[in-house]
């Protein structure tokens, strides 16, 4: 035994000894040791193994350290190949014999190892006082932390299955074997279930990924194919994808797309499809010319299997289809990048997608549909998709749920285009979308179908067909027990359908009001926006708004004004406006919300145009109650409204003028608006092209003109000529308010003239 020195007592060894010594009593270990000597005949092999193999608890041999990471000590590096083979055989026999050994076996081995290295237990060191300064300075917290780490590592390694070690041995043959041995090792690795994470990690941990990537640059086709097959399977693991990209694997795979061997091109494209799931990988493929090569793979595929004269020709075309499918899979992954979408379009992918979409092969259609789905948000692709609508609608009726999902999602994304909405209706696509609502178990398909219905319902002609199909009733049934991605689309569709008065009644009778109000308590921003929009439409019906009030919906809407998202604030304010308008005794209800009026007035300081417009609309309704008008006047509503008079957005101008018109009806507010310079900018609103702005502005000017000084300001701003044009309008409200405003100005002018003439 080597002599023991002070420096041998390191902190790490101390902690590991503490772990082992505290696990069992010494007398128990001695008894177990005697039992092991009687029952196991393999103990004599341990000492020979310790020289070259780090034996892990649980009977597993850690050989990853010797497998390609460069962690060799001087003794290991001097060993020859013969010694390696002999040791491998010995390790394998020992491992097989030791798989059933109890945990005590490994604990004793670790103790013996420490004894051989000159380490002793704590009781012996305590008697002799052999402590170095570093060890004595460590705290108990560090000891406990390391003990826990050692214990976790031991447990993790004990749980590793035999496949982990078998794969690591095969990877070693990949490193040092000849081409024949390499192919055999690759085939053997392929026999494992590489979709299991532990098998994937076994390859990575021993340095196998680097070997597999290097094999792609050899001249042996079989080695390339075998390596690609393994890389394709293990690249489903997110961390391994990044490892492959770091090793330069993508650049090599892109070059393989030029190879004449179709199986090789197919596997390379499929592997690229798996690896290119993150931004950097997609950029690498584009920068190395991968997109043009992948688009070229789509060119030779035929959409039908007819016309083949020989069996060989049929097989060749089948391979072409498989290669095209692999290329489409890769392009599908790459199409998540906007730059890649543009590169694909320049490479001529659009006509090829249109051709392949006519295929009867579902395996081909799925990635093609996926590409169209990803690219549907791009205006160039959306224009091209108009010609693909018949094929997309046809695919909605197939039995393949994944293909249906991609096609419905493509319609969802591009149906913001009115022409596409009309094409879906003309090609009888609305009925298949309605039928997909029955697929309540497939949430992804349901989300795509409800999204497509939502966007198609923007067109009134489509709503009429949905009414015939009783789609509104089906949508209401989906308001309960659905994931948020489905609910967002369902509520959005109901909001569009509720713009028709008959559908508001349908929603109420189908029991839709209560679940809609309940959704106001959620946190999903998009869902809150759509729910507010749906309730805004439903609140136009007296019976529905009564239910909303009874369910405390108005208070929930008011609380959403505190939300930090401007879209939620705006949607809530838009919904509050018809509620205040149509609920009986709404003035008292509004006053019952503590701090509610102050909150809504404060939103006039927002920088968001939609928030400002919606709040002005709500204030216009709130101000119709005299007590509420007095309260908001005290909160400074006049000055805040006056500061908005110079804005140019027509939607804001319209509702701002409505709010000013109502706020003029209290106290000295008319004079206050004049003093805050709101009158002259309002005159400019009459130059807008929006007739709704003309109508509300004339109403505001009518109220402001009741103050003489405001009449002077209007006259100086040239309001008379503008109002004279509107007196002849067919809009009775506009005509009346314009005429009254002119009459006030004329009376003031006559009074001034009479005063001057004595």
What do these coordinates show?
The protein is an all-alpha fold. The protein folds into 5 domains: 174-247, no CATH class; 258-375, Alpha Horseshoe (Leucine-rich Repeat Variant); 382-465; 470-584, Leucine-rich Repeat Variant, CATH 1.25.10; 585-756, Leucine-rich Repeat Variant, CATH 1.25.10. Helices cover 71% and strands 1% of the residues. The chain contains 50 helices and 2 strands. The chain has a two-stranded antiparallel ribbon. A hairpin with a 5-residue loop joins β1 and β2 (61-62). The protein is elongated, with a radius of gyration of 39 Å. The protein starts with 10 loop residues before the first helix and ends with a helix. Mean pLDDT is 83; it is low at 1-91 and 118-143.
Keywords:
758 residues; mainly alpha; Leucine-rich Repeat Variant; elongated; disordered N terminus
Q: Which helices and strands, and how do they pair?
A:
Blueprint: H1 11-23, H2 26-39, H3 46-50, E1 54-55, E2 61-62, H4 74-77, H5 81-98, H6 103-116, H7 122-128, H8 133-136, H9 140-158, H10 162-176, H11 179-190, H12 197-205, H13 208-215, H14 221-234, H15 238-246, H16 249-256, H17 262-275, H18 279-287, H19 290-297, H20 311-334, H21 338-346, H22 349-356, H23 362-375, H24 379-385, H25 389-395, H26 401-414, H27 418-426, H28 430-435, H29 443-456, H30 460-469, H31 471-477, H32 484-497, H33 501-509, H34 513-518, H35 525-538, H36 542-550, H37 553-559, H38 566-582, H39 586-591, H40 596-602, H41 609-622, H42 626-634, H43 637-643, H44 650-663, H45 669-675, H46 679-685, H47 691-704, H48 708-716, H49 719-727, H50 732-756
Antiparallel strand pairs: 1-2
């Amino acid at each position: 035994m080597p002599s023991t020195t002070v420096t041998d007592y390191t902190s790490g060894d101390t902690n590991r000894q503490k772990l082992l010594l505290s696990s069992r009593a010494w007398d128990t270990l001695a008894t177990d040791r005697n039992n092991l000597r009687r029952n196991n005949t393999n103990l004599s092999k341990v000492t020979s193994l310790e020289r070259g193999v780090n034996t892990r608890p649980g009977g597993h041999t850690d050989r990853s350290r010797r497998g390609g990471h460069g962690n060799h000590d001087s003794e290991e590096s001097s060993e020859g190949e013969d010694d390696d083979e002999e040791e491998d055989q010995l390790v394998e026999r020992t491992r097989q014999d030791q798989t059933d050994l109890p945990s005590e076996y490994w604990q004793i081995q670790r103790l013996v190892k420490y004894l051989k290295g000159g380490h002793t237990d704590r009781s012996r060191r305590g008697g002799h006082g052999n402590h170095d300064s570093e060890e004595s300075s460590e705290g108990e917290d560090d000891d406990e932390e390391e003990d826990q780490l050692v214990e976790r590592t031991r447990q993790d390694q004990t749980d590793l299955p035999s496949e982990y070690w078998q794969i690591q041995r095969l990877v070693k043959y990949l490193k040092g074997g000849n081409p024949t041995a390499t192919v055999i090792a690759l085939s053997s690795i392929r026999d494992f279930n590489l979709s299991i994470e532990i098998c994937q990690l076994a390859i990575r941990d021993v340095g196998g990924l680097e070997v597999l990537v290097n094999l792609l640059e050899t001249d042996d086709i079989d080695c390339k194919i075998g390596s690609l097959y393994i890389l394709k399977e293990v690249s489903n693991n997110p961390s391994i994808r990044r490892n492959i990209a770091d090793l330069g694997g993508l650049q090599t795979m892109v070059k393989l797309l030029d190879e004449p061997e179709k199986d090789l091109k197919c596997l390379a494209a499929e592997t690229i499809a798996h690896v290119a799931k993150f931004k950097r990988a997609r950029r690498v493929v584009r920068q190395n010319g991968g997109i043009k090569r992948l688009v070229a793979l789509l060119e030779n595929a035929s959409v039908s299997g007819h016309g083949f004269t020989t069996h060989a020709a049929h097989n060749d075309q089948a391979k072409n289809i498989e290669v095209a499918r692999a290329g489409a899979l890769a392009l599908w992954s790459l199409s998540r990048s906007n730059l890649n979408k543009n590169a694909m379009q320049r490479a001529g992918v659009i006509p090829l997608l249109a051709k392949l979409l006519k295929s009867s092969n579902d395996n081909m259609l799925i990635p093609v549909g996926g590409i169209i789905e990803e690219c549907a948000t791009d205006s160039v692709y959306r224009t091209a998709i108009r010609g693909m609508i018949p094929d997309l609608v046809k695919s909605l009726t197939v039995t393949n749920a994944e293909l249906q999902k991609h096609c419905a999602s493509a319609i969802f994304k591009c149906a913001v285009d009115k022409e596409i909405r009309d094409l879906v209706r003309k090609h009888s696509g609305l009925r298949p979308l309605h039928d997909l609502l029955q697929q309540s178990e497939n949430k992804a398909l349901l989300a795509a179908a409800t999204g497509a219905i939502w966007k198609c319902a923007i067109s009134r002609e489509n709503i009429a067909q949905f009414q015939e199909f009783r789609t509104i009733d089906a949508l209401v049934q989906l308001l309960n027990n659905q994931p948020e991605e489905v609910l967002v689309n369902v509520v959005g569709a109901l909001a569009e359908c509720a713009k028709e008065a008959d559908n508001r009644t349908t929603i109420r009778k189908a029991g839709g009001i209560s679940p809609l109000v309940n959704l106001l308590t959620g946190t999903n921003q998009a869902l809150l926006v759509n729910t507010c929009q749906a309730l805004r439409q439903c609140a136009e019906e007296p019976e529905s708004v009564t239910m909303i009030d009874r369910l405390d919906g108005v208070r929930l809407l008011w609380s959403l004004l505190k939300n930090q998202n401007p879209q939620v604030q705006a949607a809530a304010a838009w919904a509050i406006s018809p509620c205040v308008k149509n609920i009986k005794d709404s003035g008292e209800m509004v006053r019952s919300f503590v701090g509610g009026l102050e909150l809504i007035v404060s939103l006039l300081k927002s920088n968001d145009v939609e928030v400002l417009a919606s709040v002005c609309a709500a204030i216009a309704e709130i101000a119709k109650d005299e007590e509420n008008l007095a309260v908001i006047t005290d909160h400074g509503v006049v000055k805040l409204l006056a500061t908005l008079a110079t804005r140019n957005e027509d939607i804001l101008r319209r509702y701002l003028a409505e709010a000013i018109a109502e706020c003029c009806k209290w106290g000295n507010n008319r004079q206050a608006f004049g003093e805050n310079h709101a009158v002259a900018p309002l005159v400019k609103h009459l130059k807008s092209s929006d007739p709704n702005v003309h109508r509300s502005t004339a109403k505001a000017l009518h109220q402001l003109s009741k103050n003489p000084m405001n009449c002077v300001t209007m006259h100086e701003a040239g309001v008379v000529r503008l109002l004279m044009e509107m007196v002849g309008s067919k809009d009775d409200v506009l005509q009346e308010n314009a005429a009254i405003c002119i009459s006030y100005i004329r009376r003031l002018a006559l009074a001034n003239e009479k005063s001057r003439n004595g």
